[in-house]
Fold this protein.
Amino acid sequence: MWKTVGHDKAVSALSQALTDNRMSHAFLITGASRVGKMSLALDMARALNCIGDDPPCGVCGQCRRVTDELHPDVRVIGLEKDSDTGRLRTVISIDQVREVQRDVSLKPYEGKSRVVIFDGAENLREEAANSLLKTLEEPPDQVVIILLALDAANVLPTILSRCRRIDLRPIGAEIIADHLYRLYTTDRQLAEEVARMSGGRIGWAIQATQEPEMLEAISDRLDAVEQTVASSLEARFEYAEQLARRFSQGRAEVLEELDLWLGWWRDVMVISQGKPELVWNVSRLSALQSTSASTSLSQAAATVKAVQRAIDLLQRNVNSRLTIEELMLAVPNVVISPA
Amino acid sequence: MQLSCLQENLSRGLSVVQRAVATRTTLPITQNVLLSTDNSRLKLAATNLEIAISTWIGAQVEEEGSITIPARLLTEFVNSLPAERIDIAMNPQPLGLDLECARFEAHINGRDADDFPPIPTVESGVIGKISSSVLKDAITHVAFAAATEESRPVLTGIKVDLKGDSFTFAAADGFRLAVYEGKLAEAVSEDVSFIMPARAFQEVNRLIGSDDTTIEFTVTPSKSQALFRLENVELVSQLIQGAFPNYSQLIPEGHDTRAVVDRTAFLSATRTASIFARDGSGIVRVKVLPAENGSSGTIEISSRAEELGDNEGKIDASVEGDESKIAFNSKYLSEVLDVLGSGEIALETTTSSSPGVIRPLSKEGYIHVVMPMFVQW
């Protein structure tokens, strides 16, 4: 059984390709973070190696080894920790690609296919990407390479043209809520709230359901967003400085926080359009409503764009403090009336 | 699992499998060693997913079982123990091994043996036999010429062709080529060609003892793995996929100059020259001069280091053909001379821009081709 939830179209196409024995050897799966790219890639790894009746059966030895991250022929390549500083590197290096090339030149160790998953293809350093081209074009027999990326626009065109594309859209809130209620929680209301907050990103929803402290942390951060939105420029710049400092210590966390900014302003837009039922941050409805009352739709849209731009610039290593300060200048002044 | 064995045996067994323990952390469990009882012996096995080595040691088995244990920890602990009997017992909770030897005891946490990548078993395929001394000689003469960097994986392997009762090993790294032809102890059941990682062959070489024995090997029908069976040790290597370059066309068909020299003298002159070559991109120049009015032929080996100085050495040679000049990378020249045994070797050249060929006179089946370096003479 395919474990991927909510991407039926992609799953049925892959499953058909597998049955007809015309599987591609290079894939690019794109979609928002935590939307299910890795789950789909692991499903493909199971399907390609499954020895059960209905691949991926999920229960045969091969499927289980993939699930338990013990399969010698299934490798995930992502950002590595720098052995000197202990911090996560920001690029996938050419050495990592060379190691993969060495691996794929050997026949599979125990399975039917070697599956190499590049988690974050946009992080491939240019020279690493270039050295991967030949392998992508003509991988040895029994090798499937799967690249995962947030946005195809950040992947080199030479790589894009060599891959079969699978684009994963955000999943409907009802599907996520049902899945959470079925497997992860008995609290229907929590399931629905988390499903809405997830913005269609099921991986995030599952984690949030399992870790209540994550929801608390988000709530704290949303408080910070609301406070900053309603505060003076001075306070906003203080916030920017603090965010920039945290960015130098760990990028992911700050990018997540900016995602919350994005979601919050998206909600403002949604309310301005008269669709409060589509709001993600349901618990923040009153603050969102008063914000939308004091800003125009175009202001909200411009802010969403500004946040997106800031995220993009940060990922391209633009000075983090300047970028966030610029964003703070772009955020309109809002009066949030107490709930 | 419960058994006892001798510290020396366990230590020796661990040192055999140690070389197959993974150093990379791609799959953390591959840094473990698999211990399992096999009739009245203890089987130790390790794999880095490219090479898997298994070995068996004598043990008194009380209870069957298997487990995996971090290899380095176990090896270091066992090596530090006195040469006495070790009692080993598996502890289910927390899963691990209890070891007792003399007045030392330890508990080492382990993981379920089922989590360990299966050690490949090669049941059927092309079977052949080769004398261990022949195999050792062939590996020594060829493996060093294989590429070490991984941009072209096929070149990190040794191309093996088995035909009837003869075999050919070949390795090349783009700058040199080594080809060794020899005889198997017994004809193969079917002609076969494959590319085996040079690293794996070097491990086989290391495992071959000083006694001359016969080694049995099996290549799977899909040519995905090759197994070498030595005394109490089995090594299985994954084979490299891909097409090995057609190397026969790289071997020059003829030569204009042929110089026969004593290998040891040539090697020591090359080493001397390489001292100066270190700073000059490793270039040594070889000038072959035919015999002239009474004096014997000579080879002049020289090198120079910009601003530091230069040197020149001469050795006697019996030269046929014209005078010739050729420059080599000193590393390539000394590496091949290094593996050749004592005796005479022939250096065959045509022009200073075409490859040089080195053949030991005592070993007909071996040929080594080195690309020249381009220099101003």
